[in-house]
Request: fold
Amino acid sequence: KARLAPRHQRYAEVIAKSGQSLLAIINDILDFSKIEAGKLQLERIPVRPANIIDDVVSLFWERAASKHIDLAAYVAPNTPEEIEGDPVRISQVLSNLVNNALKFTEHGHVVVAVSMKSGGDAAGRDCTLEFSVSDTGVGIEEDKQASIFEAFSQGDQTTTRRYGGTGLGLAICRRLVEAMNGEIGLKSRPGKGSRFFFSTRTKMLVPAQPVRQVQNEKRAVI
Reply:
């Protein structure tokens, strides 16, 4: 493995990061185009909500640790063990929200959570789950919140310059959530952080168990 001079190392890092950014943009555009064209197909397979939360936290563990941000997961006791849904798309929405939370949070914490908002307590019953991502970041001005889920929209022009992004992520999230018969929203105060949340209406396959633990909860600050 060849060692690069510091200047060449910086060039290589810039090229790598630029390539990753370009790939993210292309993927966002492809996803958005697929959704707009009505070509999106969702799976309906057994899904364990706790596992999805755990996987998303694991995915962003190192990034949170590098920023000294406490990243934690919470699965409410009433959350079903197993539901019917599309684990890839639920993870995609959650990952996008966690990515944004870490991007706009310089200190404090990010919490990924899930709970059951309504539904029965027996297998086969319909239920509504709510996933959420809360942070202690910069927050969003109230007059910008109404348009935040529109395509190519961000909080303001300085957001793109400082943090980057395509402005498509939240628009894709909204359409994915709507395809899952759910709704997405946020509560935020400038300087006080944000809480993004989305619901999915689905079928309960295995009810909540008396004792609940995330399999592999991680915290970025020890």
